[in-house]
Design a protein that fits this description.
By secondary structure, the protein is an alpha+beta fold. The chain contains 10 helices and 10 strands. Helix 1 packs across helix 3, helix 4 runs antiparallel to helix 5 and helix 6 packs parallel to helix 8. The two termini are 30 Å apart. Bound molecules: flavin-adenine dinucleotide. The site of flavin-adenine dinucleotide has 23 residues, from helix 4, strand 1, strand 3 and helix 10.
Amino acid sequence: MDFRLTEEQEALRESVRDFAREVVAPVIAEHYEKHTFPYEVVRQMGKMGLFGLPFPEEHGGMGGDYFALCLVLEELARVDSSVAITLEAAVSLGAMPIFRFGTAEQKARWLPKLVSGEALAGFGLTEPGTGSDAGGTQTRAVLDGDEWVINGSKAFITNSGTDITALVTVTAVTGTRPDGSKELSTIIVPSGTPGFTVAPGYSKVGWNASDTHELTFDDCRVPAANLLGERGRGFAQFLRILDEGRIAIAALAVGLAQGCVDESLKYAKERQAFGQPIGNYQAIQFKIADMELKAHTARLAYYDAAARMLAGEPFKRQAAIAKLHASTIAVDNAREATQVHGGYGFMNEYPVARFWRDSKILEIGEGTSEVQRMIIARDLGL
Ligand SMILES: Cc1cc2nc3c(=O)[nH]c(=O)nc-3n(C[C@H](O)[C@H](O)[C@H](O)COP(=O)(O)OP(=O)(O)OC[C@H]3O[C@@H](n4cnc5c(N)ncnc54)[C@H](O)[C@@H]3O)c2cc1C
């Protein structure tokens, strides 16, 4: 058993760490404040091959694996979570369903531009009336000749409304099974399809430089060939995508938690109180030690889940544990880092203010903490 990184993994981590510090850090506060999407950062991430990390070279990818993506997400989130979630959603929610379930034609049409970062894709599962209970999907798709006609709406869909968004995969009810339950399928809806409307961006608490929209489908027609994978496999497809995605969100949460340590350490050495740096006081030392402890143990949890996934072993429980633990400690660390910064921690110009605002969604997106506990308990046989 060895959790140390290979030379290649270390080199990838170093290069993304430099990129985050030199390219992301100087511009992100302004994007965050103005709620603008960092196209220039995304373009550079595309050139670095980050959108293609876990995809084979035949599709234009880098031939790496999902763990490499997680390492990159951790380093990005150490500086900024909007950029990290843009990459996470683009790869694990946007391109991955097409890679995993798409036909040869769908892969040839969409993957090259998605894995190069030239285009983004959204993953439309959540609806205004149902999130955790995704089986409660109301959006319907009816086959009319050789076209699907889609009606319904989706809520909170990441990367769905940028200038470079190429498509959204949409889960919809396509029929009723013999036992009366809903038949769910996934359909590719290209941006700009008549009847597909993207609402203006939400006013969010955090992730302000990322792109999130409500989507509506009003007699929206797409070719029957836009069905992703087999009809009726929608439920199984999104469960697989979310299991993997949880490892990626855990990595992102660990990055935020580690960023809190970085910023607190720096500040504790500079800030003077009662004649000495606050880092000399044990109360502050213990806070930072606890923050490091939490980031470290959460990192081991996502490394373990990723290792199991890459070995082809069951990883559902470990992915849920990693996501639950990492998101919990990310919120803890953001709260404590703000405390270490005193009043300045409440000022938006300090990165810890962004970390605090960005941490809470980690306990909600891609399955709430309650849902993670349900998954763990179910996997334990309850
Ligand atoms: C910024 C942002 C980006 C997002 N991006 C995407 C995206 O790209 N694609 C996408 O499809 N979705 C996306 N989401 C949606 C996100 O995944 C959902 O918000 C999340 O899954 C929770 O669903 P909900 O909001 O409907 O909450 P609900 O499911 O209504 O839950 C409300 C509360 O009830 C609890 N609860 C629900 N059921 C149970 C139960 N059985 N037992 C105990 N407690 C329960 C929940 O844990 C939660 O605390 C995004 C959300 C946000 C805010």
